[in-house]
Amino acid sequence: MQSIRLLSVRLQLLEEREEASMTQNKVSASTEDKEGDWFVSVLGAGGTVMLACSQVSWVSAERQGHFIRLHTITGKSYRLHGTLKNLMQRWAKYGLMQIHKSFLVFPSRIRKLRQKAEGSVVHLGSGTSAAVLPVSRRKLQEIKQQLKLREIKQQLKRRDNAFCSASL
User: Fold this and answer.
1) Tens of pLDDT along 12-22?
2) CB contact at 8 A, 104 and 84
3) What is the per-residue pLDDT for 24?
4) Whole-angstrom Cα distance, residue 69 to residue 136?
5) Which residue has the higher pLDDT, 162 or 25?
6) Per-residue pLDDT at 43 exceeds 80
7) Which CATH code fits 2-167?
8) How far is CA 168 from the centre of its chain?
9) Domain boundaries defined on the chain
């Protein structure tokens, strides 16, 4: 009986410690640099990290509380106190879009869109930062339009580059 009580106290202490470390990671400030990139100051156990919007590949909502996780193009992730809605409001002008109730992505990070029997998914990044995320049916058309627009822009850029090199 005493060992059960001791385990219960240890478990409670571990939960309190984890809760304390989670609340240390929060978005403390956001600033814009000269090039127009948006930075988020992330406070954590290792100190303050300035994370650029351009380094983020996708964002996920966590189940417990108001926490989100920023996933970078280098494969690192940062857990923050906040909501997808708040981040979406701040970063929408940089192209961040919601693809599912639990996921935000930058369309430029999408490698391909696949439709499977159980639903649609997007493939992001490569190597350590690779991810496959679900797409809600409501967001599917918007994502297709974004990808089509990106493809058209790339074709125009290639055509302009070919024209410039041919005229030299």
Assistant:
1) 544 444 444 44
2) yes
3) 39
4) 19
5) 162
6) no
7) 2.40.50.1020
8) 42
9) 2-167
Residue 57's CB: how many other CB atoms inside 10 A?
A: 21
The CA distance from 167 to 164, in Å, is: 5
Q: Which two tokens stand for residue 4?
A: 């059960």
For β-strands 56-61 and 67-72, DSSP reports them as antiparallel
The three-state secondary structure class of 92 is: helix
Report how far apart, in Å, the C-alpha atoms of 49 and of each of 25, 39, 44, 62 are: 10, 10, 8, 21
Output helix, strand, coil percentages for the chain, rounded to the nearest 5: 45, 35, 20
Instruction: Provide, rounded to the nearest whole percent, the portion of the chain with pLDDT above 70.
Output: 74
Q: pTM surpassing 0.85?
A: no
